[in-house]
Amino acid sequence: MRFCVVTHVEHKICDGKFFAYGPYVQEMNLWFSLVEEVMVIAPLGDKEVSPIDLPYEHSNLKLISVPSLHVKNIRQIGKSLVSIFVIIKILFQNFQKVDHIHLRCPGNMGFLGAVVQMLFSKIPKTVKYAGNWDPNSNQPISYHWQKCILKNTFLSKNIKILVYGEWSDFTSNCTSFFTASYFESDKREIRHREWNKCVKFLFIGSLTSGKNPIYAIQLVERLHFNGIKVQLDIYGEGNQRGVISTYINQNMLHNFVKLYGNQNKEVVKDALQNAHFLVLPSKSEGWPKVVAEAMFWGCIPIATAVSCVPQMLENERGILLEVDLKNDVNKLLHVIQDPEKLTHMQQNGVRWSRAYTFEKFTSEIQKILSIS
Predict the structure, then answer these.
(1) Quick one: which of 20, 26, 75, 202 has the fewest CB in 10 Å?
(2) pTM score, two decimals?
(3) 3-state DSSP helix/strand/coil percent for the chain, to nearest 5?
(4) Inter-residue contact 361 to 30 (CB < 8 Å)
């Protein structure tokens, strides 16, 4: 099978290998293991490979570089018209050569792929919609257009959209899906936590306003002022790093708030195995892998009720944030003082998350590709 991927993820080249954002590459390597030939249509940048990047693993892989697009308003669309036409031409030419089209959405490349795929109704297609599908959420208009095109059974034929969660606007093109981070062989007994000693929190993600890391710091800071011995370790980089450093300095939080930057998967895994809670006060998510990863290691997620997060944390597998500091602090103060409830929540999360392994993920992909 000649398998074509269309993605907005920026790629890098090092020692003859193509690298990109680690969690995305790790998933795509599973898809690639099931096909004979791979074509990736994506931007290729000149940045250095970072600790969170991974290489593709396939002996017959070709990357077709396209211009990077940054289209968020009408002015940018005008400036990017030439690049858009170039990309559409590349997509059209290469879709004629493949047996299966795989779009990564939402994103500018996914949007263009969604438009061009309408001309290829006979070719089997899959779409990994890695964003928030919730029809009631506030999202960019381009995301809404992508969803309208993809779920329309007249415009998009012979296509399967893999969506995080279950939603009321599903058509026959849509199916609820998941993602994975660990293999069956990764399963081991979770490390024991002392709930009545220093409470360890983690923030793992990009340091941007969308991930809201400042709120995670404020939450832990308030617990500290309420007499709880706490520690917050922050993993990630982003344009808010300076703002966060300033906040830590001005409020003298150095003793219990630490910045570690981007770290590789093994470092993060070890942190998850030792922490009590993961804090993720995001404004938007798809399937936040770090939430499932935290539960896998017995680290209880504290997250906002966006996208499918409420479905992930239902039946007491975690704690939902209201993003109201007073209410959220009171909720945590109450829970922290109930070790029995915390152990119950921890065990529920472990059972749920360990059902979603790479083996199960690969099996489900195999079913989808065999149909095509």
Answers:
(1) 75
(2) 0.87
(3) 40, 20, 40
(4) yes
